[in-house]
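Study this fold:
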Amino acid sequence: MKERIGDKQPSVAIIIVNYNGTEDTIECVKSLNNINYNNYRIFVVENGSSKKPTKDQLDYLKGHAAYIESDENLGFSGGNNIGIKKAIENEFDYVLLLNNDTTVEPDFLSILIDVATKKDNAGIVSGKIAFYSKPSHLWYGGGHMDEKLGGGAHERWNDLNPEDTGEIREVTFITGCLMLIPTEVVKKVGLLSEEYFLYAEDTDFCYKVLEAGYKLWFCENTLIYHKVSASTGATSAMTQYYMVRNILYLTKKYRTDYHKVNARFTYQTIKDVIRGRKQFAPVRCAYRDYLKGTMGKWEM
């Protein structure tokens, strides 16, 4: 494990939340061991997994990261907040939120830190994310708030990964899969909102950071690889429930025109159900709980 080394580089707490994905988490940690940045420490938060790591897996993680266990699944925000609090307690300069089902290029963190330290009012910094199974194509190539349907939208999804241009540009949405955040920003805007439990909490955090006057920066010359919904399943009932309920809630929380936006979103959701793209049961539950104001973990 690479430790903090004084003031030569800003110190970074890399936070990885594990839920029933220990093999992925170990692969992620191994890729981090090869990066060309030195002043970091990895925090693995075991988020109440039902599938516990083996002794060998546990020994590896404890030997290469600060290992923190939660007795229950606290969701994406709750798990990351455990690590963020530890980073603030230990006076790290930055936190890096990184999905456990990712691997990284060796220079990714050096580039992100360079941008974060040079750009004015940097609130969150991120970079390109390619599909792990199809590394020539992008999963995230920048993002923006979806003015029509609410939530955060990925740009250049499934496009060919272009040649690095070195471009650094402002965006309005950054996925929680890869977020470099100054700890001073977290102190000002607060931790990740935990009422979502899963999905849309990254969009909520982007809203908070933007409203506080910070900027979101996207780097074209960084790259990591994402296995995409490895722990939940991209089309599972759980995923569909949280995505529908949380987008409705998020839009109402931040948009003055939420009636119109949620009406369009509902129309699109109904079409998706009719076409078989979404399941009726989780969508019905999502609308029921949204209307009742029920947030947090879905009690299926």
Observations:
- Confidence is low (pLDDT under 50) at residues 1-6.
- The first strand starts at residue 12 and ends at 18.
- The chain has nine helices and twelve strands.
- Residues 12-226 form a domain with the Spore Coat Polysaccharide Biosynthesis Protein SpsA; Chain A fold (CATH 3.90.550.60).
